[in-house]
Specification:
mainly alpha; 5 helices
C-alpha cells in the first residue's frame, strides 16, 4: 500500500469517531449499555424510525455492519469507555430498564 493510501486510511479511521453527532454518540452509548431500539426510543422521546436512522448513521460512519461491531470499534478508538467505566454496561442510567435484545 502506498504512503498516500495509508495516510487516507488513517485519517478516515481517526475522523470516524469525531464525525458522530451528539445524538449518535448518545445512542451508541445506550446501545453499549444494552438498550434496544424501543428502550432508546422511550428514554430519549424519539420515534422508533428516528432511532433506527441514527443507528444506521453510526454503523455507516464507523464502517461496520452490526451494533456489536460498532460498540467494539468505538471502544477500540476511545469513542466509548470500556465496560464498567462511565457509560459502560456496568453502570446503567437511573430509571432505565433493560430492553429486549437488539433486533
Amino acid at each position: 500500500m502506498s504512503l498516500r493510501a495509508e495516510t487516507r486510511r488513517a485519517r478516515a479511521t481517526q475522523s470516524a469517531g469525531s464525525t458522530l453527532s451528539t445524538r449518535e454518540q448518545e445512542i451508541l452509548e445506550l446501545l453499549a449499555d444494552g438498550r434496544g431500539t424501543e428502550a432508546i426510543s422511550d428514554e430519549l422521546g424519539l420515534a422508533l424510525e428516528t432511532v433506527r436512522t441514527h443507528i444506521k448513521a453510526v454503523l455507516r460512519k464507523l464502517r461496520v455492519h452490526s451494533r456489536q461491531e460498532a460498540i467494539g470499534v468505538a471502544r477500540e478508538r476511545g469513542i466509548l469507555t470500556a465496560p464498567g467505566g462511565p457509560g459502560g454496561s456496568a453502570s446503567p442510567r437511573a430509571g432505565a430498564g433493560r430492553a429486549r435484545p437488539c433486533r
